Amino acid sequence: MRKTILVIILLVLFLPINSYADSNIDLKALTDDELIDLIADTRLEYFTRRINSDNRQIIYDTEKLKITLTGQYEERFSSLVALDCIVENHTDNVISIFIDSIDVNGFQINDTERFVCLDFKPNKKIKGSIVFDFTRADINGYKGLKDIILTLKVCDSNSNDILFTTDEILITFPNS
């Protein structure tokens, strides 16, 4: 039963990328672990293609901080969604950025990976991620995202003082 469900999932995920009829993969010959790896690799390829489609979106831009969303993906073998971003620190401080609050499709998410980036030097760029468990938003994966509302807390990394908290940042996913 488990193998049948995995084959169905594989077909649903794999068919848009490559026609099953054209593939040389004998799905029935695969072990459960090989099948799971194939599904994960297929999903990873699919989401990598979506990320690389140049869907960058500036989600926050002030004279102190700029955040550009560069992509989103589901973590392998988990229920986590990560929103990748490039963060530009325009302050004179070494900063750390934490999620103050996050709502996904109207659901408040309390158990997030609370930092976006740590010990970020002045006048530099860094890649960061906003990570949350999509099951807490009552959605089924990345495709269920409609909107995210979040606020970020920016702290001085040396003193731990809060420098500022952003206004609410709205991120929409019109094609999801």
**Poorly predicted ranges:** 16-21
Oligomer: single chain
Structural class given helices, strands, pairing?
alpha+beta
- The helix content is 10-25%
Main sheet: strands, sense, barrel: 6 strands, antiparallel
Estimate the strand proportion: 35-45%
Number of helices: 2
Q: In CATH terms, what is the architecture of the largest domain?
A: Sandwich
According to CATH, the fold-level topology of the largest domain is Immunoglobulin-like
Mean pLDDT: 78
Instruction: Compute the CA-based radius of gyration.
Output: 19 Å
CATH class of the largest domain: Mainly Beta
Please count the beta strands (DSSP E, at least 2 residues each).
10
Order of helices and strands: HHEEEEEEEEEE
Distance between the termini: 30 Å
> How many separate structural domains?
2
From the spread of the alpha carbons, the general shape counts as elongated
